[in-house]
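Q: What residues go here?
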């Protein structure tokens, strides 16, 4: 899903009326505004290489694009770039008078529907949203996954199946781990049937389980497991520790704590390991960031964990995996530290 591009939304306008509308929006939200050379004002960027080139470049850099103008122009410019609804940025079109805000692309996973509603609220405009679940006043599985920062095996096919069932008014249950209940309560769950206990299911055609668990009890109906990314792993290791060993030990530690590998949110270690090939490959293979902390930052929390004088003399702190997991999880450590073959792994759960 398109959740990692850090820049604010890019806005494009080509007329004086569009510039006026862009200035209204820029006063209410962070925007990078682009316009033609003849309309440039303070706070606006020029269209390097022309409108089409600049907008296509922004498509690869920004999480969301806002175009003030005709929908057809946006479609013609961006059509060659369209790739996947789970990775394309949100694209929203606004008419020059600010009467309508149209969710054009990546409504759910990209967040265009939410952005459309927000922009319409700012302008007092009419939001135009055409995705089937929204039209039918239903939630959507991909939106729920986006809100929870969650992953799922077979995500694309699951989204198609579950959203179709919701739109068709079939009974789709929604169950979650107790510790995730508060987060789920803040999400859009319209159309789902709340389920309190897996061993006492109401009449359902299908079930979505929001969980960090590696395994669920046997369920005799179609079901999908949606896994929020909450688990963090602090890892210390000798220089040159191979990736296969790190991967095997982390997998074993996750299984021992009954965590689904999809729940992993980040891997952390000491700054001296920022170029450690095995750790870099491990994070890349699991599609999570690799974060490092200074010895000073880790030392502030080493008293919470067993410390090694050898490690302290070598890297400047007596413990690496525990303090790293502590910082990544805001102090929510899960289980004991694994120590094996020169590797230490401590897990935490960030809520």
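A:
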């Amino acid at each position: 899903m398109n959740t990692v591009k850090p820049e604010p939304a890019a806005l494009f306008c080509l007329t004086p009326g569009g510039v006026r509308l862009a200035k209204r929006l820029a006063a209410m939200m962070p925007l990078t505004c682009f316009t033609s050379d003849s309309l440039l004002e303070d706070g606006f960027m020029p269209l390097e290489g022309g409108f089409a080139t600049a907008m296509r470049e922004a498509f690869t850099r920004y999480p969301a694009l806002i175009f003030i103008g005709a929908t057809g122009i946006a479609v013609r410019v961006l059509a060659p770039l369209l790739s996947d609804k789970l990775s394309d940025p949100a694209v929203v079109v606004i008419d020059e008078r600010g009467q309508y805000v149209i969710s054009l692309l990546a409504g759910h996973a990209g967040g265009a529907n939410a952005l459309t509603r927000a922009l319409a609220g700012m302008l007092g405009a009419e939001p135009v949203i055409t995705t089937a679940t929204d039209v039918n006043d239903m939630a959507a599985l991909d939106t729920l996954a986006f809100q929870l920062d969650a992953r799922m095996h077979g995500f694309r096919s699951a989204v198609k199946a579950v959203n179709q069932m919701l739109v068709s008014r079939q009974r789709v249950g929604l169950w979650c781990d107790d510790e995730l209940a508060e987060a789920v309560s803040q999400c859009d769950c319209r159309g789902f049937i709340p389920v309190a206990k897996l061993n006492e299911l109401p009449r359902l055609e299908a079930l979505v389980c929001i969980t960090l668990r590696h395994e669920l009890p046997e369920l005799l109906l179609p079901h999908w497991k949606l896994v929020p990314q909450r688990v963090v792993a602090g890892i210390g290791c000798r220089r040159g520790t191979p990736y296969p060993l790190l991967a095997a030990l982390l997998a074993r530690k996750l299984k021992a704590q009954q965590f689904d590998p999809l729940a992993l949110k980040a891997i952390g270690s000491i700054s001296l390991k920022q170029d450690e090939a095995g750790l870099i490959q491990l994070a890349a293979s699991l599609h999570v960031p690799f974060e490092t902390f200074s010895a000073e930052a880790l030392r502030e929390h080493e008293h919470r964990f067993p410390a090694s004088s050898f490690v302290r003399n070598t890297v400047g702190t007596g413990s690496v995996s525990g303090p790293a997991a502590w910082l990544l999880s805001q102090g929510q450590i899960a289980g004991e530290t694994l120590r094996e073959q020169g590797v230490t792994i401590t897990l935490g759960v960030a809520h």
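A: Context that may help when evaluating the design: Residues 68 and 247 are 48 Å apart (CA to CA). Confidence is low (pLDDT under 50) at residues 1-6.
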